[in-house]
Amino acid sequence: TWKTYLTMMHWSLRRQSSWVQLAGHQGNFQLSEGGEVLKLYSVVEANCLDYLMRDPLRPFVPEYHGKVTRGEHCYICLEDLLSGLRKPVIMDCKMGIRTYQEEELVKARTKATLRSDMYQKMLKIEPMALSAEEHAQRGVTKLRYLQWRDANSSTSTLGFRIEGIMVRAMASKSLQNSCYPKWPVYLTSFIPWKISNKAYYSRLLALNDALTNSPFFRNHEVIGSSLLFVHDNTSKASVWMIDFGKTTPVPDTSKLQHNVPWAEGNREDGYLIGLTSLINSLSQAISVVAWQQEDSIGGVKSFTLTD
């Protein structure tokens, strides 16, 4: 989740400032003596990162330094994506048209465990979405909650959702909104003009090209992965692919398209649907800022995305 990753950001940020501790699974992350980030070991994620180090997508993922053991626990050793940034600003975008694996559907049908915490989250946000039986049980399955969350955010419509934004001197904030037409507004408040124009937009276009040429991407179902946007007050900015704990290979005979709707059994994740939507939203955000600048100076200014 975004809270988990932002916890890792705190470990890095504490070397730069006195930020407050962020919410999340604090035990999942540590800092190595060399400054790398240690994330609790997952064989699925480790296999993905090992593959990605030899794939055209390597420039878009944190460098993987292998497995590290500390006491009774094993960790994945990763590049610190905030290294060298001054007062970084961070945005986490969950990619794809669903955030649950097909295997979770099968498991939910055979062994459904009721979760009272997820019931309470649904009750707080949309009580009318709960059935009479769910109210009586005061619990829902994890799959039921994930499907509801995807359907009530831009995940199912745009193929991405903004999970969290952390701005310097402010605490992290969840933005699991269903009002997806407002994405350009969020983006203009998050991204400074010069950075959005020259760095983020071109980085996303380069990522799109790399995905097209990536054997890893063609052969993996990418679920629950995020794009991490980071920039600072010195105009340094980048976008990174993170979180591969639910990313699994498909059979050798299958090649995913990543840009078609999901139907049970086809394993399509809609990652490219989300990336296209994100690129278009960023383009709209850039246009909004351009219009605002024109209004502020009372004149007409020519504008291109390559200015």
UniProtKB/TrEMBL annotation:
<dbReference type="InterPro" id="IPR038286">
    <property type="entry name" value="IPK_sf"/>
</dbReference>
<dbReference type="InterPro" id="IPR005522">
    <property type="entry name" value="IPK"/>
</dbReference>
<dbReference type="GO" id="GO:0005634">
    <property type="term" value="C:nucleus"/>
</dbReference>
<dbReference type="Pfam" id="PF03770">
    <property type="entry name" value="IPK"/>
</dbReference>
<comment type="similarity">
    <text>Belongs to the inositol phosphokinase (IPK) family.</text>
</comment>
<keyword id="KW-0418">Kinase</keyword>
<dbReference type="GO" id="GO:0032958">
    <property type="term" value="P:inositol phosphate biosynthetic process"/>
</dbReference>
<dbReference type="GO" id="GO:0046854">
    <property type="term" value="P:phosphatidylinositol phosphate biosynthetic process"/>
</dbReference>
<protein>
    <recommendedName>
        <fullName>Kinase</fullName>
        <ecNumber>2.7.-.-</ecNumber>
    </recommendedName>
</protein>
<dbReference type="GO" id="GO:0000828">
    <property type="term" value="F:inositol hexakisphosphate kinase activity"/>
</dbReference>
<keyword id="KW-0808">Transferase</keyword>
<dbReference type="GO" id="GO:0005737">
    <property type="term" value="C:cytoplasm"/>
</dbReference>
